[in-house]
Each structure stands twice: as structure tokens, then as C-alpha cells.
Amino acid sequence: MSILHLVNKSPYERDSLDTAADYMVDGDAMLLIEDGVYAAMSGGKAASKISGMKVSVLGPDLAARGISEEKLVDGVTVVDYAGFVDLVESNDKVQSWL
Amino acid sequence: MSILHLVNKSPYERDSLDTAADYMVDGDAMLLIEDGVYAAMSGGKAASKISGMKVSVLGPDLAARGISEEKLVDGVTVVDYAGFVDLVESNDKVQSWL
Amino acid sequence: MKLTIQVNEGPYQHQASDSAYFFTKAALEKGHEIFRVFFYHDGVNNGTRLTTPPQDDRNVVSRWSELAAEHDLDLVICVAAAQRRGIVDDGEAERNKKDATNIAPGFRISGLGQLVEGGIQSDRLVVFGD
Amino acid sequence: MKLTIQVNEGPYQHQASDSAYFFTKAALEKGHEIFRVFFYHDGVNNGTRLTTPPQDDRNVVSRWSELAAEHDLDLVICVAAAQRRGIVDDGEAERNKKDATNIAPGFRISGLGQLVEGGIQSDRLVVFGD
Amino acid sequence: MSETKKFMYVNRRAPYGTIYAWESLEVVLIGAAFEQDVSLAFIDDGVYQLVKGQDTAGVGMKNFSPTYAALGDYEVTKIYVEKESLEERGLTLDDLQHLVWEDEDDDWAEKDSIRLVSRAELAEVFSGQDVMFNF
Amino acid sequence: MSETKKFMYVNRRAPYGTIYAWESLEVVLIGAAFEQDVSLAFIDDGVYQLVKGQDTAGVGMKNFSPTYAALGDYEVTKIYVEKESLEERGLTLDDLQHLVWEDEDDDWAEKDSIRLVSRAELAEVFSGQDVMFNF
């Protein structure tokens, strides 16, 4: 049963993205919210941690932090809160990596 | 003027010990308190980050977490709250790496 | 789908309560059912009516109260966590001999079983925290 | 030496307030002067008299109140941070039209300038937080 | 909805520095009355919760570590400890409390509650769960 | 004790995820009235505070980033940004706001407030300070 992995902390400050990425299995998805969105900025050292994975970021959190969508790692999808709800629905459960 | 660097978070969860260690200069001291004390356990991967530095750990926080003093990295000094106060006095200022 | 939302941090210090609020609102707008919003840990501090945020900032507490009134939401504050942190309703004030209450409209204080029940009764549990 | 202590987190969720308390107590026992303890961010939540911790746990709030009474400590809660989080004394209740107060004995609410003054007047500033 | 659900409590924080470990345990204890299929996972700094010999007298906090040993009495018998997290911290199972439960289907034989698993194995266990509680 | 002290405000947190960045700025603004010798340092995730183009409409929070541009008016003119932290995050000075102040001793010439420094250089600056404020 698929898991939506929720990461809300900067990959430079905390270990949560590392662990979440390790726990992603085929069919799972990841959503970056709050300070977690920094992981999706291309050029950053943490970008490699999510490359090749099914990752979305929350658009309002990106905008608040001044990150334009062109700066995102290739393949990352931007969603709004409604899209966040859809991700929760389309996966069988949610794991928040607090 | 010497700085007492205060680190209160686990080196496995946060980036604060890494940064604090980089900011230590000759004459500075470091005190590990709260979850920061885990950095001083020998055998842990983070132990290398403080090797060769002037580091103390807060004894009550060690004991609470079940870490006996034999498990500490060589050269680390154990202090109590009174010793914490002395460290604050013997350095010119305190930098808390929150 | 039926959802239970858990909020682990208080207002303003962390974004957790903001994120939970906007997520809950979006779920309601999509026609999903919110079985319960459970406030745990410092999350209980979202339920105090004594806040006075700056004029140019959002009001985290009253936003929850208003959403609850509009959609008949069940906003539950964990009693054990609330006692540690000083969130008090009439019943708690009487039981613990407190001379004041501070609970905000739309919130109620109850036990941890309400969270477990949320896990059982809902299709999804979504946790927001630090 | 003359010390100002800053506490950035509330009771129970983080160890910050515990560490600050034991540090302050140890400094007093060694004969140092505590110029001020300043509660900022969620640290303002240390100043509510409405907590009822479990019988077998420490009482973080009353411990501060008692230490203040014993040593005539100046426990200052930042007014801006307190308004966001709902810590209220009589003056704040009147100013912001609140129907209750929750401030604990020995604490007072004042401005951020009190922290800056602590930095100027003290030999050391020691910050406890998350 | 009346059938039993698989509950997984994921613990990633060290004890005492924050209250999450203790307030997580409070949910587990209350939740035991609901007779779900309960598992606990200790990952990252969460493994520190189970370290034996904790003595909180000097920090004035309640030592809640004995509660883990009582979990068996609450029929909480599946306690997953992640190998990689232990190793990174220089810990072995010998550093942790020995947690057991009594199997009533096997003449009350005492059995180990702790299951040492790799990150990959635990990810598989997660896949099979219904609800994740996060602390 | 009446002479001027060197105050260093150390900022290590990203904005909006937590309030530390904003409540730090509130101390700096209030502190400006006390006429101390003030510096700000942005290290680790703190460098994100200065990223330009922040738009908080979608998260319902106050956008406090314009306040940094006002620091010059408060005579806060020494803003240290750590090079290593920027580089690790794939940022350059061009991604940050351009912060300036007007030098009254130099015919009100507009001067840059931001000083890009290495970790080692900033450690030296720290050594010369009297009081560290930590956020």
C-alpha cells in the first residue's frame, strides 16, 4: 500500500529528508512542504537526494520563500493545497517525517 | 575574546554541531547539553566531529540518557550545572547554536 | 474520504498550524469529510482565546474557530497535553482548581482516545508538526 | 558575574526551560547575579499559572515562580511574543479587551528593550532554546 | 471500518530533549485499549529512547524508560528497531533494554519484543500498515 | 558598562517555517534605539531569509522580507552573509536582496550593507564581539 511521505524541514538543517528518501519504495510519493521545499532547488547540494524520485512541492510554500519554479529540480511537480489533498487521497496512507 | 559554544541538539538530527565545530577557534570551548551530549559517545559516527577539540558535556544530561562516562570520546570533560556556570564565566561570551 | 488531522505545534512559532489549516480548508472545499482535528503536544496552544496577534498578521486561533463554526468541525484538545501547558475550559478549571479559563470557541478538551479513534474511523491521518 | 538568561521555548515540549532553570539556580548558588531572565518566542508560555502537570512530574512554571520569590529575580515576558501566544496580565487584559488573565506569580510582561538592556548591562547573555 | 487496523507508531526523537518520545508512549498506552494491531518503530534518534540505564535525577524530569518494559503487558509485542540507526550511533542491542512479552498461545513463554530490522526491511513493514502515527 | 557594546545577531533559520527569523528582526529593530555597535550574521539556513522575491500571499503569513531593506535606516549596516552556506544551497549574492545604507560621513553615498565572508573570516568577526544573540 503506497505511502505519501511528507517532509517539512530543510534538508540542510535536519535528517528527515535523508530518512524519508531511504524509506521511499516503488509506488510511494513524496511531498515537500514548509521549509522542506528547499530540497527541490536545483544547484543546492540536497537536490541529488531527491533526483529520480516522485516528488511534489507545495507551491504556496515555494512562493513564500522566493523560489521560482524555474529553479526546481527537473521532474518535480508543483501542487497547491488542493493538490496536497489529492496526493493524500491517491496514496493509501501518509507518513510525516517530523 | 574566547567563545563558549553551546550545542543542545543531536548531531544526527541537526546541523548545529557541524557549524559550531567549524566556528571553534583557538582558545574557544564547547559544551554539549541536552540532546547535544550524544555527540560525545565514542563509537558513534559523530564522535569524529569533536575529536581533538576542547569539549565538555553536561553530566546530568548524560545520565538522563543512559550514557556512562566510560562511553565518552577521549578527552571530553564532564561537568555539572555549577561547572556549566564556570565555563560561562571563564569564556568571554556564549554562542548558543540553536 | 474521511480525514483526521493532527496538529503538534502551537500558533506562530511553527508553520504547522498554518499548514494544517489550509490543508483542512482545501479538503473541505473538495467535499471531503473532516472526522476530527486533534491538537496534541504544543498544538494545544492553538486553542487559547487570549491571543492578540498584530493587526497586520493572521489570527491563527480565530481562523480555526471560524472554520469549525462554518463546517461544524470537531476540534479536540488533548487533556493531558493541555494540563501540562495550561489550556483550560470550565470543567478543567473546576477539576484542577484554576481561577480562569482560556479555551477558544469551537475547541473542546478530551482524551487521547479521541486521536486513536480518529485513526480507526478515518481513511487518512495527516500529522503536522515541527 | 552578572547574567541575563534568555528562554525561547515553553514548558515540557523542550528541555530548554529546564536547562535554563538549573543553570540559573547554579549561578545563584555560586553567588553570581541574575540581572534578568527574559522569556521570548514560545518561552513566554513558561509564565502561565494555568498548568497542572502530572503529580509525578516537575512543575516548570511554579519552579520559576518560587526561584523568583526566593532570589528576587526579574522574570520578564516579551509583550509582543506574549500577545501572539496568549499570555495575559491585568494590563494586557485591559488593553486588548481579554476576559481573563493567566500570568503566573513572579512574572511581568514588558518590551523587547528589556532583552537588549540585558545584553548591555550583563557580563554574559546565555540563550536556551530549541 | 469495525475490523482491526494496523497501527504503526514511528519514533524518531531522542528522549528528554523534547517531550515527543514520552507523549508518543502515552498514545500507545491509551491506544492499547482499542485492540488494534499495534507496532512501534524506532528510527534515527528514536533508538536512544530504548537505551538502558537512564537516570533522570539530575535533570529533574520523570524517567519514563521503565514504561517500555511494560508494553508487553499492554499486548504491544512488535517493536522494530532499525539496524542502520543503531550502527550509525555506535549502539548495539546490548545497549538497549531487553523487552519481552508472554505468549499466551505458547504456554506463556517469554518472547523478545524487539525485532532488529534493516531500513529496507522496515520499509516493507511500513508498506503493510494502515495508519502511521508520527513522533 | 555605559560604553558601546558590539552586538552580533546570529541567524541560522529559514523564514516562515518557524518564527525565529521574524522575531529576531524585531529584536534588531528595537535594539537599534540603544545605539550599540550592531552586526547581523546569516549562516546555514539563515541565508534564506535574504532571498528576494518572497511572496507569502498563498500561506497567509506576513511578508517581512521588506524589513531587511529598512535596516540601513536603523543604522544597521554590517550584514555578514556566509559564503559556504550560500554555496551549499546553490545560491549567489544575486539571489539575495541588495541591501544598502547611506553614509553620512561620505556625502550620503549609498553603500552595500552585505559583506560576503568565509566561515573562517566570520569566526574572526565573532571573536571580536561582546554579545551574541542567537536565533
Automatic annotation (TrEMBL), chains A, B:
Gene Ontology process terms (BP): tRNA wobble position uridine thiolation
Any GO molecular function: transferase activity
Domain of life: Bacteria
Keyword Oxidoreductase appears in the UniProt entry: no
InterPro entries recorded: DsrEFH-like, Sulphur_relay_TusB/DsrH
Pfam families: DsrH
UniProt protein name: Hexameric sulfur relay protein rDsrEFH, subunit H
Automatic annotation (TrEMBL), chains C, D:
TM spans (from-to): none
Biological process, per Gene Ontology: tRNA wobble position uridine thiolation
Gene Ontology CC terms, in alphabetical order: sulfurtransferase complex
UniProt keyword list: Cytoplasm, Transferase
Chief location: cytoplasm
Gene Ontology terms, MF aspect: sulfur carrier activity; sulfurtransferase activity
Pfam families reported in the protein's UniProt record: DsrE
InterPro entries per UniProt: DsrEFH-like, Sulphur_relay_DsrE/F-like, Sulphur_relay_TusD/DsrE
Family stated for the protein in its record: Belongs to the DsrE/TusD family.
Annotated protein name in UniProt: Hexameric sulfur relay protein rDsrEFH, subunit E
Record organism: Solemya velum gill symbiont
Taxonomic placement: Bacteria, Pseudomonadati, Pseudomonadota, Gammaproteobacteria, sulfur-oxidizing symbionts
Automatic annotation (TrEMBL), chains E, F:
Family statement drawn from the similarity comment of this UniProt entry: Belongs to the DsrF/TusC family.
Gene that this polypeptide is encoded by: rdsrF
InterPro entries noted in UniProt: DsrEFH-like, Sulphur_relay_DsrE/F-like, Sulphur_relay_TusC/DsrF
Top-rank taxon: Bacteria
TM annotation in the entry: none
Protein name (Swiss-Prot/TrEMBL): Hexameric sulfur relay protein rDsrEFH, subunit F
